[in-house]
Design a protein that fits this description.
Elements lengths: L3 E2 L10 H8 L12 H14 L3 E5 L2 H12 L4 E6 L3 H4 L4 H6 L2 E5 L8 H7 L9 E8 L12 H13 L3 E6 L2 H8 L3 H5 L4 E5 L10 E5 L1 H14 L7 H13 L4 H16 L4 E2 L9 E6 L6 H10 L2 E2 L1 E4 L2 E5 L6 H16 L3
Parallel strand pairs: 1-11, 3-4, 3-5, 5-6, 6-7
Antiparallel strand pairs: 2-8, 7-8, 9-10, 10-13, 12-13
Helix pairs in contact: 1-11, 2-11, 3-10, 6-7, 12-14
This protein binds pyridoxal-5'-phosphate.
Length: 346
């Protein structure tokens, strides 16, 4: 039997139809602005996010890095949730590349509130770092794929504006939020000076992220892309996957969300697990593991041997993520494997 992979939506693979679109893509020298497929992708994403221009980049991490490089000078401070990707998974990029500090905020499910921003803004003084940027992650990855409600985003944005701060959205899974909430990606993105979506998560592409903003922002971002070696050549081959995904893979995110809830429901009966079904907004499921005697690592290793790859986020928490390679039948099979695996540890 094939392995069922609930480890991450990053491990989804391109479909035959996507590969076909890639093989047939028109290409040119991207770096010189001559690749029509990259241009088509950027225009599509700019329109989707309600911004004037967009920039194709090799990864979401580079989208965050370049946005921060454009917005911040050394000694500036970024306000972000303590669980955010820019703090935990980008190799210290904001400090290493932009010389920026990050002020971590707390809050349920990876989200903070307008008052937290007001409380974190530094008074203007030569003693303090300069508060510069507020970063919101939609959906909040370590918040369990939680969706920031539009009202909360607008309140946070207003607090940031009042303090003269710039706003950046890490929209790695913004399309999941849009599909699940019936609020458009452009509405969520509206208050932000820069915003990006990842192509290689739920959208199922092999590579890439697209960063959007106004003309001046994209002009500055292009120079960083060039400097960092992110300017490419016949990149239409990979941009074609993005165009294809935006045409065919957005609506189907709904299935991932239903499958995440189904998986949670099917495994929640197990006495070793604690799950809050109301906390499953999108395609990420956190499963808290009760027995402390055997760590989650050991359980995940056994599950893998039994045909299921699942994440052990820490000693007491598993993470399961649904995506395009996992249909309802696989989710049902995965739940059975996981329950059986857990039984062996009680
Ligand atoms: C995956 C992810 C990133 C980084 O994207 P890559 O394409 O993997 O570089 C940034 N932010 C969040 C919230 C993510 O989940």
């Amino acid at each position: 039997m094939n392995m069922i992979n609930l480890y991450s939506d990053t491990q989804s693979t391109p479909t035959p139809a996507m590969r076909q679109a890639m093989a047939q893509a028109q290409v040119g020298d991207e770096q010189a602005g001559l690749d029509p497929t990259v241009d088509a992708l950027c225009e599509k994403v700019a329109a989707l996010l309600g911004k004037s221009r967009a920039l194709f980049l090799p990864s979401g991490t580079m989208c965050n890095a370049i946005a921060i490089l454009v917005h911040c000078r050394p000694g500036d401070e970024i306000i972000a949730h303590e669980t955010s990707h820019i703090i935990n998974y980008e190799g210290g990029g904001p400090a290493a590349l932009a010389g920026a500090l990050i002020r971590p905020l707390t809050g349920e499910r990876g989200q903070f509130a307008a008052d937290d921003v007001r409380g974190a803004v530094r008074p203007k003084s030569r003693y303090h770092p300069t508060s510069r940027l507020v970063c919101v992650e939609q959906t909040a990855n370590l918040g369990g794929g939680s969706i920031w409600p539009l009202a909360r985003i607008e309140e946070v944005a207003q607090a940031a504006r009042e303090a003269g701060l710039i706003l950046h959205m890490d929209g790695a899974r913004l399309m999941n939020a849009a599909v699940a909430s019936e609020v458009s990606a452009a509405e969520f993105a509206k208050p932000f000076d820069s915003v990006w979506i990842d192509l290689s998560k739920g959208l199922g592409c092999p590579i890439g992220g697209v960063l959007a903003g106004d003309d001046a922002f994209i002009e500055a971002a292009w120079q960083w892309k060039q400097r960092l070696g992110g300017a490419m050549r016949q990149a239409g081959i990979i941009a074609a996957a993005g165009v294809y995904a935006l045409d065919h893979h957005v609506g189907r995110l709904r299935e991932d969300h239903a499958n995440a809830r189904l998986f949670a429901e099917l495994v929640s009966v197990h006495p070793s697990l604690e799950i809050a079904p109301d906390d499953i907004d999108t395609n990420i499921v956190f499963l808290d593991y009760r027995p402390a005697k055997s760590g989650t690592e050991a359980v995940a290793a056994r599950a893998l041997a039994n045909g299921l790859r699942i994440g052990a986020t820490n000693a007491s928490r598993f993470r399961a993520v649904t995506h395009i390679d996992v249909g309802e039948a696989e989710v049902r099979a995965a739940a059975e494997i996981f329950r059986d695996t857990l039984d062996a540890f009680v």
